[in-house]
Design brief:
seven-stranded mixed beta sheet, four-stranded antiparallel beta sheet
């Protein structure tokens, strides 16, 4: 059974940094396509960053240059360091695992990031 557990969220001032973690069990992060999504109050969930099983990364324009997605095969964890945070980054951040060439996907329960002074 695949489980994804996010951590690292919290309250941070504008301009600050956080690092989100997504610890996976039941399947390897390196064998799957991994993504970080976020959902702000009253808004639809959006893809923030993704990394394929081949290591290719992509980002939504609003976070390019500030967020970086990476995976640790030993710890079976995907990270999302976030720098220069803005109030508009406030959201619940979710981790998703998707098997390559498959519709099978798994979600974590999310971690709340609040950027406020």
């Amino acid at each position: 059974q695949v489980q994804l557990v996010e951590s690292g969220g919290g309250l941070v001032q504008p301009g600050g940094s956080l690092r989100l973690s997504c610890a996976a069990s039941g399947s390897s992060v390196s064998s799957n396509n991994m993504g970080w999504y976020r959902q702000a109050p009253g808004k639809e969930r959006e893809l923030v960053a993704s990394i394929t099983s081949g290591g290719a990364t992509s980002y939504v324009d609003s976070v390019k240059g500030r967020f970086t997605i990476s995976g640790d095969n030993v710890k079976n964890t995907v990270y999302l360091p976030m720098n220069s945070l803005k109030p508009e980054d406030t959201a619940v951040y979710y981790c998703k695992m998707r098997r390559p060439f498959s519709a099978v996907e798994y979600w974590g329960k999310g971690t709340l990031v609040t950027v406020s002074s």
